[in-house]
Every structure is written in structure tokens, then in C-alpha cells.
Amino acid sequence: MKVFIPAYFITSGHSVQKWKGTDMESMRDTKRIMEREIKKGSTPLSFEQMEIDTNNYQEITSVEKLTQVLQYLHRVGNYKSLAGKTVINNVYTFMRGRTPDFTRARRYLTGKIYHQMLRQERKMKPTYEGDCYIETAKCYFSLPEEWEKHKMIYLNNDAYGFILSNKYILGLYKYCREARRDIAMEAHEIPENTNTVVQRLINMENLEVLSHCLLLDDVWIEDNLIGAKMYTIFKLGISSQSTAFLL
Predict the structure, then answer these.
(1) Which end of the chain is flanked by fewer CB atoms within 10 Å, N or C?
(2) What is the DSSP string of 101-134?
(3) Closest CA to 143 of 170, 155, 161
(4) Residue 231 and residue 92: Cα distance in Å, rounded?
(5) Which distant-in-sequence residues (6+ apart) come within 8 Å of 110 by Cβ?
(6) pLDDT score of 149
């Protein structure tokens, strides 16, 4: 029996978005850009919500473990087999000099970003004694039109195919990023019995970001929503030698 699996189909092109100082373009501008991309043919996926709970954190206890995690996120090294055609849907944040950018993946670029993150580790110098964690956030998107028109065959299975432009994918990423900021601002909603380290991670207090990405090559369908995971590697404390970025 055939099963349904989600799949993205992407229009041609590639682009990198940049911060200006500490701010990216406003979400109002992003919304206008995405509306124009819909008129050009992008599937009108809309960001709905992000879910993070106290169980979404895992401590990274050694540089070897960090290397393994980074290889998985960037689909390189021991996880190179995961770099299928849809890896180009992923969005990664990286440092261009001292300026953070974010970009949709390309095969050669994921390896470049991976090695840059290893250099970031050497600059940030985590001790791996309770100061390095990975966060897994779930992002959900809705489709405000009939699903039937997006049915297709992918890898001999029934699937749903979505056409998304570069700018539209980067816009979805920005909505996820803003949602993470909003969660950090809603500290009063964290349960009182939450571990103090987890509280600090959720609030993004006195920490740096080593690596950050939205993986759209591994999505799922749940309650008529499309789910994807956004990963962030945090290092507690701020190093004066670091060029890391904050969300």
C-alpha cells in the first residue's frame, strides 16, 4: 500500500539575506515580499505556530558530540547520505565576517557552513560542563487551499508537492525566527518547577548561538499542518573573543 509523504519542489534561484546591524528587514516587508511570490506561483504556506517545551533540550557534553550534531544538521560527514535533492530547502544562519547572514542551502555551501561552525566552536570555547545545549523547536505551517491539487508521486509514493521560491522559503524562516523571539519574551508562561538552566535557554538569557537552522528536507504532516524542525545550538555565557550571533 502506498503511503503519503510530504515533499517540496523549489523554483530556481538562490539568495542570501543579510542583517543590517542587529536587525533584518521588518516582518511587514517580509510579508509583502511573500505576497508577491505567491502571485508569481509560490504555494501559499503560512506560518501558524512554534512549539517548545522543557524536554526539547539536550546537553552536548564534548567536542566530539558537537561535531556529530553539526554533521547531522548540515548533512555532511557521517550523515552525507541524508543530503538528498530536498536538502536545498534547508535554511542556515552563518557568519559573513562579523555579520550574520541566512541562506538557503546548496550542496557545497552546507559543508562550508559546517566548517565555519567548527571554527566558531574554537572561538567560543565551550567547556562542555553544562554550558552547551541543542534546542529542537517544532514549526507548523498551514495551507489555506485544497490539498488535493498538490498531490503527486515522489519516490514511488503518493506525496504532496509544493512550489516555493527562494524568497518565500526565507520568509517562512523569518517567521519561525520571530516566533522564537516571542517565546523568549513570554517568560512568565514557563512552569515554575522548570530547571533553571532550561529557563535560561528558553528565555535566551546571557548566552550565544553557535549554530542555527530550519530543516525543510525532513517535514511531516500533522492535523492538516506541515511540521518542520528548527535547531539552535546555545553556549551559555558570552565570550569577549566570540563572533557568535544572537537570535
Answers:
(1) N
(2) EEEE--HHHHHHHHHHHHHHHHHH---SSS-EEE
(3) 161
(4) 10
(5) 74, 75, 76, 83, 87, 90, 92
(6) 83
pLDDT tens-digit profile of 12-68? Answer: 445 555 444 344 568 899 999 999 999 999 999 999 999 998 889 999 999 999 999
Residue recorded with cell 515522489: 154
CA neighbor of 16 nearest in space, from 4, 24, 28, 26: 24
Specify whether the CB–CB gap between 112 and 118 falls below 8 A. no
Determine the residue type at 65: K
Q: Among candidates 213, 204, 190, 212, which has minimal Cα distance to 238?
A: 204
